Amino acid sequence: MKIAISSSGDNLQSEVDSRFARCPYYIIYDTDNGSFEAIKNESLIARGGAGVQASRNIVEMGVKVVISGNIGPNAFRVLSAAAIRIYSGATGSVNDVIERFKNRGYENNSNPDVE
Q: Which residues of the chain have pLDDT under 50?
């Protein structure tokens, strides 16, 4: 299963970014084989609609789970419509977040957590 984590950098030691739609990178981690790739977030510089644009890109990648510091309402709406599970409140390194996710350390969001 693919999970997307908002990241401040392009590797597993990078810190999780608190912003989903405006983070510099997404780490796409495959829980089936432990591989990952860093994807530059092209929505970072969008004047408006970054949440929708970033979410659509994530949906197109076949991601099933999103983990971030915060998720805004537009991103939440697009991700939820695509049946992607959303977890917010993540802090620490991307690697720490992956381990916490594997150990079921997050609760699924039922609402966006920022405006």
A: none
